[in-house]
């Protein structure tokens, strides 16, 4: 299955809530979800007013799809993350969210160096970041406690990062990360706890989906 390249706002409308896939635009009145919050498609508006029973499977599927879309992960990769979460000690659902949060593109987004995870993924793929001093252009790279994620010295001179410095501090950096605005680098202090992950996902439903 190829990566979805259609309108991001259709994904929000399908899930019936804002997933904040387009960064700052999602916080303004220009966000299309503000005007059309019903599901996409020819009968989307009618379906939003129609009452129908939602099965347990449908709820589980929607929760899994929501998590995938928030983090921008394909189905096969998401399933691998779930199996990795199963192997770890502790609650599988919380482990799954921890794995997703420690992706390099998500860490770049959490540090405030990108407006969205999609933008962070592109910046990583273009080779603008290092992990512990080594250039890393793999968005799915999983960071560990004590890892240092930095903007490459060559990239700091680019116009994007010069402008980015003026926007730093607008978004709160989570407690499991520390950020040095001057050096444009962040350190992973610990693996994130569930209460530190502010995504509107009921991870237990995802566990139930894959445990059928």
Question: Can you characterise this structure?
Answer:
The protein has 11 helices and 5 strands; from the N terminus they run ααααααααβββααββα. The chain has helices spanning 8-15, 32-35, 44-49, 56-71, 75-87, 92-101, 104-110, 117-125, 153-156, 159-167, 203-210; strands at residues 129-131, 134-135, 148-151, 177-180, 185-188. The longest helix has 16 residues, at 56-71. Helix 4 packs across helix 11 (203-210), helix 5 (75-87) crosses helix 6 and helix 6 (92-101) packs across helix 11. By secondary structure, the protein is α+β, with helices and mostly antiparallel strands. It has a 5-stranded antiparallel β-sheet. The protein is globular, with a radius of gyration of 18 Å. 44% of the residues lie in helices and 8% in strands. It folds into 2 domains: 8-100 and 200-210, Ribosomal Protein S4 Delta 41, Chain A, domain 1 (Orthogonal Bundle), CATH 1.10.1050.10; 103-190, RNA-binding S4 domain (Structural Genomics Hypothetical 15.5 Kd Protein In mrcA-pckA Intergenic Region, Chain A).
């Amino acid at each position: 299955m190829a990566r979805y390249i259609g309108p991001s706002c259709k994904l929000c409308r399908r899930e019936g809530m804002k997933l904040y896939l387009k960064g700052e635009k999602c916080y303004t009145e220009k966000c299309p979800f503000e005007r059309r919050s019903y599901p996409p498609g020819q009968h989307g508006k009618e379906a939003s007013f129609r009452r129908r029973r939602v099965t347990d499977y449908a709820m589980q599927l929607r929760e899994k799809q929501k998590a995938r879309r928030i983090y921008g992960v394909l189905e096969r990769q998401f399933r691998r993350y779930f199996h990795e979460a199963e192997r770890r000690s502790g609650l599988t659902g919380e482990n799954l969210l921890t794995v997703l949060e420690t992706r390099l593109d998500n860490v770049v987004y959490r540090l405030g160096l990108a407006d969205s995870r999609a933008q962070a993924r592109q910046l990583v793929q273009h080779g603008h970041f290092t992990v512990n001093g080594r250039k890393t252009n793999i968005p799915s790279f999983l960071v560990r406690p004590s890892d240092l994620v930095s903007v490459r010295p060559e990239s700091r001179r680019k116009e994007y990062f010069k402008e980015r410095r003026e926007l730093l501090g607008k978004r709160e950096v989570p407690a499991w990360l520390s950020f040095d605005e001057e050096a444009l680098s962040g350190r992973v202090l610990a693996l994130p706890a569930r209460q530190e992950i502010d995504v509107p996902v009921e991870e237990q439903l995802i566990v139930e989906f894959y445990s059928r």
